[in-house]
Design a protein that fits this description.
- The protein has about 375 residues and is of the alpha/beta class.
- Helix content is about 50%, strand content about 10%.
- It contains 17 helices and ten strands.
- It has helices at about 1-25, 25-30, 60-75, 105-120, 135-140, 170, 175-185, 195, 210-215, 220-230, 245-255, 260-270, 270-280, 285-300, 305-320, 325-335, 350-360; strands at about 40-45, 45-50, 85-90, 95, 125, 130, 145, 150-155, 190, 200-205.
- The strands form two sheets. It has a six-stranded mixed sheet with strand order 1-2-3-5-7-10, with helices on both faces.
- Helix 12 packs antiparallel against helix 13 (about 270-280).
- The protein is globular.
- The two termini are about 35 Å apart.
Amino acid sequence: SQYFQHYYITNNLRMQALCRRLAHTPLKRFLTTSSPPALFNHHGNVATILLNRPNSLNSYNSEMVELLVDHLYKFERDDTVKIVLMEGVGDRAFCAGGDIVHLGQITRENQLHHKLKTLKKPVISLGDGIVMGGGMGLCCNSRYRVGTERSMFAMPETRIGYYPDAGATYFLSRLGDVGMYLALTGHRIRGYDARHLDFVTHFVESGKLTLLKDEVLSCSSEDDLVHCLRSHEDPRDLLEFSLKDNLLEISKCFSAASVLEIIDRLQESGSDFAQKTLKTLSIMSPIALCISHRTQILSRNLDFTECLRMECNISNKTFALGEFAEGVRALLIDKDNNPNWNPPSLETVDRAVLDDVFNDKSIDWDPLP
């Protein structure tokens, strides 16, 4: 539409300008490194991937994405590789998502996520520390996923005018109303809670990760890997899901057919949990909330490949709205935490504009063979 042609050009230029500002802040100049963004090795029958951008919390840029795609193909064709082990350098983060200073193409990123999930050989990701945004995609799209008491999972995209992607349309939608709650609020899932939600398949104390990794490197088959993971897993049977007492309210409120109805149900509830959730939602981009809500609804009837294809088609339109650029400005550049969302409220979200985001099927995205 003419609306999006105008706003795509305007906001694309605005986003480029914002990225230049962010790249030239003193902090970013200090963090610049010439080291490869990912390191690869081979130990017996185990290939290793080390996400190597510690000063950026191992966030991935376009160079890292290309390296990961290239090496996953190599590992898949290499008969000596039986297992792929992926982790982040340092103890602060596995991966904090995509680096907005070096925005890549979502089409290529989603090819990476698809390859991870469908690789013919098992991938095990050590999700220790921060696992956010696209980092959740890297971790949750791996066959085996290890969490620790330091793990912190979140998809906080609505806070910066975007929606949870990187395959989150698939893995969050499989959680039903809880997934909707996480997609809209960006609520942080910590420690063993990640095991309750199947974000991780195994839970291990962080102090035992080195021993686990050493034993994984000696595995020669997937059966060996499964046995190794089971032998190190800490079941934490006594730890209940931290949202347990709120599940009925989440189901009642976040099963609503629209974000406005979710707000109405939370206001009607009036509980402490509802009030806290309303406060959280009030600072999010209204149209990003609506886009996130609709993607979660639509994804429930889509397979993984179809979800990634939908993400590719709606992402450019979402960027064109300008909310992402404004969210980045408010949170990461000017840091005034006062984004000027447009439209400013859920009541003023134009249904026609929202529909147009989802009507675009111009990107004929396909996974890599």
